[in-house]
Amino acid sequence: MNTPTPDDNDAMRDALQRDAARVPEPPFDATLHQAAMRRIRALADPAGRTSRFLLLPALATAAAVLAVAALVFLGRPHSSPKNEVAAELIPHPAAPRASLLAYRTAAGEGDEALLAVLDRDARDLLPASSPVFNTTLR
Amino acid sequence: MKKTILILTLAAFAFAPVLRAEGTKYPPINPALLYWQAAAELPQLTEDQARDLSEMASGKLPFDAEKAGQLLTPKGSLRLAEKAANSTASCDWGLPLEDGPGTSLPHLAKIRQLAGLAIINAETLFAKGKVKEGVEWLMVAHRIARHAGAGDLLISFLVQNAIETNAVRAAARHCLSWDDGTRQAYAAALQTLPPLRTVQESFHGEQVLIDWVERRALPSAQSQHEIEELMQALTIEKPADKEAMIAQLAPGALPATLTEWRDLQSRLEAALGKPWAQGQPEIKALTDEAVHSPRYLIRNYIPTVTSVSENAFILATLHTMLQAALQHGSQLDEAAAGAYRDALEGEPLRLQKGENGTLTLLAARQHPVGKNLSLQLGK
Known about the structure:
heterodimer; A: mainly alpha; elongated; disordered N terminus; B: mainly alpha; 3-stranded antiparallel β-sheet; 18 helices
């Protein structure tokens, strides 16, 4: 195994790297990066590759437009039969508890039904105000 | 005698300013406010306890002193309920009737529970031999019934009648053991109570629904959102019903519907004020007219009043039966019972004697269909 010997080039490289580390690095600029890459590729192959790089973004854009159009069409409210069926299946909320219509509906089923609803509401409408009933009757 | 009257008169004059001052300092409180305070102090009942309360108050479940003792603790709620029942101020529940079908009526469930507690308290006092105090608590229940009816809606009327029926049946269970003086005093006290709300008065209050629809369905207020809200408030869910309702809301159709609705409701109201024999065929015909109306709102939102009307006559008959029992006590016999007539067909009451010493007064016909209209006297 050979031990590497330091030379002048190594000393120069280390000094450059230290200086470079002191220079603040600007944030990555994608536009600048792409422009630089395009210029490098154009210099390397000025004929065929330019047209290919222009065609790909055009195809991607067209595909995106088609996808957005499809999403907009499918997601449009009231346009889909599925949505209409769902709207029919979702029931409207019943008459509010203890309301005139709720009691009327119960009374339509007979006095017993009305009294049963009143009993239920009597239990539920106010929170517990006394601890004395925490235990059940025997 | 003259001297006694003179002394009493002078005493009344002497104390009048004091009483007036007391009345000014503590004016009578709207009973509804006191009932709500009583409701706030009601204990939270378990399902079993709530059923016991309801069934003991109606007499379906025999009185159980131990269960009653637990239901009646603490006493704060009862004290406030008694104060409310005896208040001389008019009872105003402050119902938000402008909300139409959504009008909130939470007081009805609570006042029914308070009335049940009043009756169970009376039963407890009777069981302890405290007849006078027990009678006073039955009178509290009678008064609560009248305050329950103060909403002037059919539902308020039904709750009023349910409470009053329980109070009448409770009095009937005990009145045979009362002395003549107590029975007569009870009969006299019943006469001094404010009258119960009639079915006709209560039905009149049902106009709130028509008024509400009229306000909400004005052509100027018919945005899609408002129509949807209207349907939700009326719990219209089926697509066919929605279509029918939308047709009703058309500017040309709505005024005609409202006019016809009001007219039919007025004719029903008039029929409800008639005696049973005369009013019942009219009520049935008008109800049929509503049920077969081509107008969706009329077909679905005129309340069915046939059974409500019968309920009123049944309670009137129970009052007559109690009156007979209070008048004659344990001396009531078939001949005496026959002198009283039911409020429906006007036929004489009958008397049945039970083996255990109970007496049962019966109307000649069944009301409602399939059920004897009867009042058991004694236990």
